[in-house]
């Protein structure tokens, strides 16, 4: 008896089925668009992506330059080599991982 009370009525089941079919149709149309290979981003979105990337690269260069200035200032009075300072302090550079900053 409790199982019957907790189950869906025919009207509720029909409503859920209609919603599921609607969602399925939307996803099918989205999949068809993706499979067709059309451009999925608008020119405005692409411009925003490129400007965000350009700003991130600019900030990367700025931070790297500032970090190298600090390291160079420390090295002026440091008795050991640059490599030994990096080892002692635990500095990992882009060059250690063969990472190159993209060109602007």
Query: What summary fits the major beta sheet?
Result: none
Radius of gyration: 29 Å
How many β-strands, per DSSP? 0
Structural class: mainly alpha
Q: Hey, roughly how much beta strand do the residues contain?
A: under 5%
Instruction: Tell me the number of helical segments per DSSP (H or I, 4 or more residues long).
Output: 4
Give the SSE string: HHHH
Question: What is the straight-line distance between the termini?
Answer: 70 Å
In round numbers, the mean pLDDT is 89
Shape descriptor reads elongated
Low-confidence stretches: none
Which percent range fits the helix content? Answer: over 70%
The quaternary state of the protein chains shown equals single chain
